[in-house]
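Ticket #4471: structure output looks truncated?

Reporter: J.K.
Steps to reproduce: submitted the chain below (145 residues) through the standard prediction queue, then opened the result file.
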Amino acid sequence: MSAEEDLARATGLLRAHTDSTWSGVREAVLARAAAAFRPSAPVRGRHALGDFLVASDVVVAQLRTAVDAVPGATAARILCTTGEEDVLQQVVVELSVRFGESLHEVAAAVRAAVVAELAVLLGALSPGADGVRADVHVTDVDPRD
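Returned output as attached by the reporter:
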């Protein structure tokens, strides 16, 4: 058999296998994909024109960028808690801090960055400094620069 004939035969077999297999698993794959979708909770903000809603995933993404900009800090996890009418009550930032950094100084800088970012994002409904907690978790020590 020539190389072209081998390729044509292999292509035919793969197409036949894929088509029949897809028909058999299509419903299960689509059901799993639909079940995996998790809508993002709303977070209420307020600016001069009135109230608005922001997806909590967007808030977390913006806060992660602000935290990661703090020297020596990396956001390991960010949690947002909302209360009545979707007003943000608390943000908890779990940090990974570079070896040799002052944990208190990094945590304070992260809190300040988060408070500033929330003021930009949510305006008058930002929880302020009392609603932001920076938890430092030491999970590994790597003395390399």
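Triage note (M.O.): checked the attachment and the full token line is present. The two ends are 59 Å apart (CA to CA).
Status: closed, working as intended.
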